[in-house]
């Protein structure tokens, strides 16, 4: 049997870990799987939208500020944030020049911490200029393009940003042969992980292993399709009489992504192994709230999406 992970080296933002005694070929099988999970499935926080006073779009310039708006947005994307809540948070920045503005000037609530306060944002060169910015920070997974986020921003002057939620800067692995008993073709897996500081590299490895185990547990054994084994579910349709009717079996097979939920909510449901409407409507509201990444806002979004089809949660 393989050994538990062993620390080879650890620094502030990175570490190297080894797993010994893997059966021949399993070094690459395990290493590639863990690498993909580490890059795609660990939650983090990022600035998702910005509202700059007096600015209507990202191609603007600001009088008395050295950088144009696009450069300011690029600098804001580099700000790394640690957030202790799943609910979106609003940060603010208001600076009167002349001053070099950094991430340390951002005012944050108690549940939010700026990890790189030295990050440059802009240079206000005019003493009569005040740079006022409102920032929305959210938790999510991986990378979400601004075009996707823009669909959720309807307020004029709100600029969506490409959201880099992943707390991982770099991850790589290598496999070498080792001796186990009389055999010399067993594998030693060595994994290198570098984070942005919002989590440690050790936590990143531990969480990725947990995610892999949970996913594999969910598919152990063969099982007939739930819809064929279980009786048709009766759920409340939102009609005047609020009477219960059977939901069409085809609707229960609808995939979660077809409900047009936000990427954050859809990803959280997928990580909880909820992939169809049938799997979703079997859950109680308290079950949904227990899913990592879904707070009250996500729950309300799910309820609204289901209500479009006349369905409510249990």
Automatic annotation (TrEMBL):
Catalytic activity entry: RNA(n) + a ribonucleoside 5'-triphosphate = RNA(n+1) + diphosphate
Entry EC no(s): 2.7.7.6
SMART domains, alphabetized: RPOLD (SM00662)
Residues covered by region (Alpha C-terminal domain (alpha-CTD)): 247-314
Entry-linked Pfam families: RNA_pol_A_bac (PF01000), RNA_pol_A_CTD (PF03118), RNA_pol_L (PF01193)
SUPFAM superfamilies reported in the protein's UniProt record: C-terminal domain of RNA polymerase alpha subunit, Insert subdomain of RNA polymerase alpha subunit, RBP11-like subunits of RNA polymerase
Coiled coil: 235-262
Keywords, ordered alphabetically: Coiled coil, DNA-directed RNA polymerase, Nucleotidyltransferase, Transcription, Transferase
MF annotations from Gene Ontology: DNA binding; DNA-directed RNA polymerase activity; protein dimerization activity
GO cellular component: cytoplasm; DNA-directed RNA polymerase complex
GO biological process: DNA-templated transcription
Residues of the DNA-directed RNA polymerase RpoA/D/Rpb3-type domain: 14-222
Gene3D superfamilies named in the record: 5' to 3' exonuclease, C-terminal subdomain, DNA-directed RNA polymerase, insert domain, RNA polymerase, RBP11-like subunit
Region (Alpha N-terminal domain (alpha-NTD)): 1-223
Alphabetized NCBIfam families for the sequence: PRK05182.1-2 (NF003513), PRK05182.2-5 (NF003519), rpoA (TIGR02027)
Family note: Belongs to the RNA polymerase alpha chain family.
Role played: DNA-dependent RNA polymerase catalyzes the transcription of DNA into RNA using the four ribonucleoside triphosphates as substrates.
Domains (record comment): The N-terminal domain is essential for RNAP assembly and basal transcription, whereas the C-terminal domain is involved in interaction with transcriptional regulators and with upstream promoter elements.
Name of the protein described by the UniProt record: DNA-directed RNA polymerase subunit alpha
């Amino acid at each position: 049997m393989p050994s538990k992970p062993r620390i080879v080296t650890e620094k502030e933002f990175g570490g190297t870990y080894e797993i010994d005694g893997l059966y021949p070929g399993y070094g690459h099988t395990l290493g590639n799987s863990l690498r993909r999970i580490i890059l795609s499935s660990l939650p983090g926080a990022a600035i998702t939208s910005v509202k700059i006073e007096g600015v209507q779009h990202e191609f603007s310039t600001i009088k008395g500020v050295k950088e144009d708006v696009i450069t300011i947005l690029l600098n804001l994307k580099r700000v790394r944030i640690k957030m202790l809540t799943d609910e979106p948070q609003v940060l603010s920045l208001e600076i009167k020049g002349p001053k070099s503005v950094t991430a340390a000037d951002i005012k944050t609530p108690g549940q939010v911490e700026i990890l790189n306060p030295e990050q440059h944002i802009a240079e206000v060169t005019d003493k009569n200029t005040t740079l006022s910015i409102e920032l929305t920070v959210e938790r999510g997974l991986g990378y979400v393009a601004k075009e996707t986020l823009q669909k959720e921003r309807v307020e004029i002057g709100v600029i969506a940003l490409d959201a880099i939620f992943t707390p991982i800067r770099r991850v790589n692995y290598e496999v070498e042969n080792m001796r186990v008993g009389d055999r010399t073709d067993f594998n030693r897996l060595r994994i290198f992980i570098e984070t942005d500081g919002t989590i440690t590299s050790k936590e990143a490895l531990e969480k990725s292993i947990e995610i892999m185990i949970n996913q594999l547990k969910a598919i152990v054994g063969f099982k007939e399709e739930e819809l064929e084994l279980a009786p048709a579910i009766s759920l409340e349709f939102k009609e005047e009489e609020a009477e219960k009717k059977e939901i069409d079996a085809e609707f229960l097979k609808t995939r979660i992504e077809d409900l047009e939920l936000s990427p954050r909510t859809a990803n959280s449901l997928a990580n909880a192994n909820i992939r169809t409407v049938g799997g979703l409507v079997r859950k109680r509201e308290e079950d949904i709230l227990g899913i990592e990444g879904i707070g009250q806002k996500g729950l309300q979004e799910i309820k609204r999406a289901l209500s479009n089809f006349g369905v409510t949660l249990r």
